[in-house]
């Protein structure tokens, strides 16, 4: 038998991909999409057999685990089913997932519970917070050691709400956004440049592109300038 899992930890993202795909298959068989939380985004993923963990998500998990120290607390805003959060927790790291849609949150809670049955330590490492970012900011880890990230975080946002989201990013030590899908869809390079310029103008420093090996996604790592100064002062 291959060693894909230990009693405490997941050892292979390929194993996790299959595990989550089967979880989604069982979920789809268990009721209609409104009840299961699989509607829209996840229905498309599932129908197109894009697996339990997409290539982009797998690369993101690899990146987060290698780029940040073990005591980092990750925060994922808009986790959906929590496929990334579950992988991070099963790999032995701490994460808080925020989800505003109650049915999606239920789906994420079921995946978390299913993972906890295999790796009991997931329950302590993976916290779910119901609500919309940034309203729930006070309920999630912030400050030094807290890394916020977003995947496929697009919606129709009134300008004031988008401004609130951008202003809240400085509460974290680092922020990773995917420029194509952050807040609004930015399909062209000019639109992605404009989104990046907006984030830099809000007081974030550009730490450069990350996960460049996956075609079609444009992850960017940013750091609040206040945090940069603190770190430089400490050196
Ligand atoms: C398109 S899905 C993507 C889910 C997941 N990030 C992924 O990439 O698989 C976007 C999710 O973000 C949630 N969402 C959107 N805006 C949010 C906000 N401000 N706070 C929390 N959740 C939000 C939606 O309810 C939805 O489940």
Features:
globular; Rossmann fold; seven-stranded mixed beta sheet; 235 residues; 10 helices; binds S-adenosylmethionine; alpha/beta
Structure description:
- β1 (73-77), α5 (83-90) and β2 (94-99) form a beta-alpha-beta unit.
- This protein has helices at residues 13-29, 33-36, 41-47, 55-67, 83-90, 102-118, 122-125, 159-168, 189-201, 225-234, and strands at residues 73-77, 94-99, 126-130, 143-150, 172-178, 204-210, 219-224.
- 38% of the residues are buried.
- The chain contains 10 helices and 7 strands.
- The chain has a single domain (53-234), classed as Vaccinia Virus protein VP39 (Rossmann fold), CATH 3.40.50.
- Strands 3-2-1-4-5-7-6 form a 7-stranded mixed beta sheet, sandwiched between helices.
- By secondary structure, it is an alpha/beta fold.
- It binds S-adenosylmethionine (SAM).
- The site of S-adenosylmethionine (SAM) has 17 residues, from β2.
Describe the protein's topology:
Blueprint: H1 13-29, H2 33-36, H3 41-47, H4 55-67, E1 73-77, H5 83-90, E2 94-99, H6 102-118, H7 122-125, E3 126-130, E4 143-150, H8 159-168, E5 172-178, H9 189-201, E6 204-210, E7 219-224, H10 225-234
Parallel strand pairs: 1-2, 1-4, 2-3, 4-5
Antiparallel strand pairs: 5-7, 6-7
